[in-house]
Amino acid sequence: MSEIPLPLAPDTVGLLEGLTTTRSIRRYLDEPVPDDVLRDIMFAATRAPSGSNRQPFRFMVLTDSDRARQAKHLVARGAQKIWGSKRATDGYDDGSGVRDDSPKARMARVMQEYVDHFADVPVMVLAVLVRYRDATPTEGASVYPACQNLLLAARALGYGGVITGFHAFVEPELRSLLGIPEQSLLAATITLGKPAGRHGPVRRLPMRETVFGDSWGESVPWAVDPPGTQVMTTRFGSDNPPSTGPTA
Ligand SMILES: Cc1cc2nc3c(=O)[nH]c(=O)nc-3n(C[C@H](O)[C@H](O)[C@H](O)COP(=O)(O)O)c2cc1C
After folding, report:
1. Which of 88, 97, 169, 180 lies in disulfide reach of 175, CB 3.0 to 4.6 Å?
2. Which residues line ligand 1 (CB under 6 A)?
3. How many A from CA of 24 to the centre of ligand 1?
4. What are phi and psi of 138, to 5 degrees?
5. In the prediction, which pLDDT does 247 show?
6. Number of helices and strands (H, E) in the chain?
7. What percent of the chain has pLDDT over 70?
8. What is the pLDDT of residues 44-95, one digit of tens each?
């Protein structure tokens, strides 16, 4: 990357469009993410809000150094264990999962491919919250907005990613490999790359089920999804067709 400070890349995705169309991207082309793109994505991440503007978030951006590769292999092992157990306990291979074309079976295929090739992801970002006080239930609120900024910035620049908890199984080894301080929250593992394949629209519950007025559980007349919105027919994520690539 040039030593000369570069302006931010032009952004062709409108803010609302980006917010409402960004999917989790788990399949990537086999190409690196250039340093100037990483700079822009991480700049956006580090502009996020945090309590009292303390900015306790730190990011380790792991690409292709020997240590980065070791870290990816380590997390890949964790990802395979975590997905293997979720696949069994959440019944991905039962019910509609036995039908090859069901959303559940497609989700299982995407997840299996993702974890099988996890060590080859172009970029793995670890989001860490450096604590300045004892852990609190809400501390993540000062790191997760930055993670979402990161993913939205990736989308704006033609890249994609997904936030995961795949470090959980190998956290002590990962901390020791990368020197992550003991008194910190390893908040997320985010993978990034140039999307491969296609993906459908964002699917969520209808607004009437998630936005209320002054009575709990009661919708308000204006809480109506815009025309063409894809809504989920069930609350279970495995019936939400997975993304396999970029926004069409
Ligand atoms: C807190 C959080 C944890 C997540 N953990 C994982 C994970 O461990 N592995 C994974 O593949 N996706 C993970 N995801 C991605 C979700 O599965 C995804 O956002 C959700 O299924 C909706 O799909 P969409 O983003 O493509 O619309 C996580 C998302 C969030 C917000």
Report:
1. 180
2. 23-24, 26, 162-166, 202, 237, 240, 243
3. 7
4. -100, 5
5. 29
6. 7, 4
7. 93
8. 999 999 999 999 999 999 999 999 999 999 999 999 999 999 999 999 988 8
pLDDT in tens, 93-130: 888 888 988 989 999 999 999 999 999 999 999 999 99
| DSSP-derived secondary structure letter, 228 | T
As given in the structure block, the two tokens for residue 149 are 């900024």
Whether pTM > 0.90 for this model: the answer is yes
Q: How far apart are the C-alpha atoms of 157 and 13, rounded to whole Å?
A: 8
120: closest CA among 51, 20, 23, 31?
Answer: 31
- Euclidean distance between CA atoms 69 and 215, whole angstroms: 52
> In a mutational test of the pocket of ligand 1, which residue from 164, 190, 234, 244 has the highest number of ligand atoms less than 8 Å from its CB?
164
Instruction: Provide mean pLDDT across the span 170-199.
Output: 96
Q: Copy the structure tokens of residue 201.
A: 């629209």
Sheet with 57-62: list strands edge to edge.
57-62, 123-130, 184-193, 160-164
Relative to the CA of 82, which ligand 1 atom is closest?
A: 8
b/e code 152-161 from CB counts within 10 Å (16+ = b): bbbbbbebbb
Do residues 232 and 205 touch, judged by C-beta distance below 8 A?
yes
- 192-205 average pLDDT score: 93
Between the CA of 10 and the centroid of ligand 1 the distance, in Å, is 28
In one-letter notation, the amino acid at residue 171 is E
Q: Is the distance from CB of 48 to CB of 145 less than 8 angstroms?
A: yes
Backbone angles phi, psi at 191, to 5 degrees: -105, 150
Domains of the chain: 15-193 (3.40.109.10), 203-248 (no CATH)
Q: Which residue has the tokens 């998630």?
A: 210
Distance of CA 110 to the CA centre of its chain: 15
